[in-house]
Fold these 2 entries.
Entry 1:
Amino acid sequence: MSNMSKFNQPLGANDMPRFGGLASMMRLPVSSDLTRVDVCFVGVPMDIGASNRAGTRHGPRQIRTESCLIRPYNMGTGAAPFESFQVVDYGDIAVNTFNLHATCDIITDEIDHILACETIPLILGGDHTLTYPVLRSFAKKYGPVALVHVDAHADTSEAMFGEKVAHGTPFRRAVEENLIIPEKTFQIGLRGSGYSPEDYNWGRNKGFEVHTAEMCWHQSLTPLMSEIRHKVGPTPVYLSFDIDSLDPAFAPGTGTVELGGLTTIQGLEVVRGCLGMNLVGGDLVEVSPPYDTTGNTALIGSQLLFEMLCVLPGIKINR
Ligand code: MN
Ligand code: MN
């Protein structure tokens, strides 16, 4: 079957045991050539924007390692991404680990290139700082985009330790630089201790819709996502998924843990609820392997990236 497809297929477990071979994302071919490539997975191995525990520089490599389990067909939704898209693992962006601002410029240049190739990037983080330079690229191509932001934190601080660029500030910068549409920005899963109500109100005052974790507890997020789909309409939308949105019972391997988070089921409902939107890119950030003793945080991250692939416009659904 796989050799008949016009698209790349993940290396099957009958061709190489899942624990063997090179650890590319979903055991896909690695390629820096994006000619006629619809979607690429791309890593951003950085943690120099993190404020508490570090370690997300190891995220992309560990997400790739754990992704070896993922099979090509989505049993839950019927999505068949490898009958729909040409997909490659584009490798990692060569960040400057000694210079955060240089790193941001490197990320923007690389995402500019990917978008110029008409390829949709799905990004393996990396700390959440990376979404700011990524959104700079998307805004150049599409104008300001709609945003679905899943996170325990608002990430709209004015500065951290006096620095305007850090993993707690990307969405403040994105508003100031007109990279996102505030009225079409949806934050889901926010919780924990803060400094003042201003932590969430800054975004609300700009037009963000804030859905705190408490508003999400004990319920399906499918109805919320259908409302969001309706509000976003045909506008290009970017999905930024911070793994710390999930409860630490599920995803402890991250730097800024908060209790009372989303379940993995709710995480799936959010990503699957993006089906039907004009999703133009996404990221999965803040997996920190040194704090991920079982590997399950990276594993969940890899599966959420697969789910993002399964909701991109043009996906074939087999039922
Ligand atoms: Mn974040
Ligand atoms: Mn967070």
Note: The pocket of manganese (II) ion (ligand 2) is lined by residues 151-153, 242, 244, 256, 286 (CB under 6 Å).
Entry 2:
Amino acid sequence: MSWHVLGAGSLGGLWAARLFRGGEPVRLILRDRTRLAQYRAGGGLRLTEGDTTSLYPLPAETPEAGNPIRRLILACKSYDAEDAIASVAARLEPEAEVLLLQNGLGSQDAVAARVPRARCLRASTTEGAFRETDFHVVAAGAGQIWIGDPLGTQASPPWLETLANLSFPVRWTDDIDARLWRKLAINCAINPLTVLYRCRNGELGQHRAEVAALCNELVVLLEAMDLAPAAQGLQQEVEAVIAATANNRSSMLQDVDRGQRTEVSYLLGHALPIAERLRLAVPRLTDLQQRLQALLAERGLPVD
Ligand code: NAP
């Protein structure tokens, strides 16, 4: 049974290369014919791990290709996910499984609504990768991948073991949305501030009180949503992440520096309307979003 990976960017490239070299049948789905021609001209996908760069000649196609899709890994940004799934929806087999790698929350529901017959699983990953150039991915940090079914404790798919055997650091969870919320909260406490202060994560150590105040509001929100386990020890974990990734530039800061759209709508932009619906006062988070949006607008970037 073949895997399809839609999006040959950082994470999609990392996943596809690891599947391919493990002997799994895998095909890339690229945006359009122009991207496909560029990919073919380079001879395949390059993956750098440590000092080693390997070229993997994975087959690739466009969304319009005719072959049916049984197992799809959706590896685009959150804001592209709905259009991307729509472009291949007609190709999904009735029993299709779709694994969503998007960070934050909001896009997963939109995707699932587009393909109601497919089983949409969600992943939350702390692995890191970036694009050196088009179709050349650098593995930038070990981590953990949690996979789960948002509809509850349904059995894990048999291919989870296949991924584990290929050295994917995967674990199954019965509560993937709590994992995604926890990561969303950590991202909300760190990423926007790194953009506003134009700093690496570690420099947020100088803004401890501000980080703590954001964590307090995020804890109130998570607890009000009955996600108390995701709220537990949030501030301590945020401080630990800041220390452990002191030299890193957050993904949001990298997006802004590259002049690219951020995923803010799926982070703060997802949390704030829920706080409003629950009538929770979150002045620090609201102020953070307003300052971030002002900066994005100043740079000519989308504010959502
Ligand atoms: P990325 O490097 O920008 O890659 C996204 C890829 O999706 C690009 O290659 C893009 O193609 C492709 N794409 C977008 N729309 C498409 C469409 N309709 N059809 C085909 N391809 C399409 O992004 P990323 O860093 O891999 O991030 C993907 C998700 O993973 C994000 O939600 C991110 O937050 C999350 N994540 C990433 C990391 C990481 O370390 N990179 C870690 C944790 C979580 P083009 O090249 O043609 O634009």
Note: Residues 12 and 75 are 5 Å apart (CA to CA).
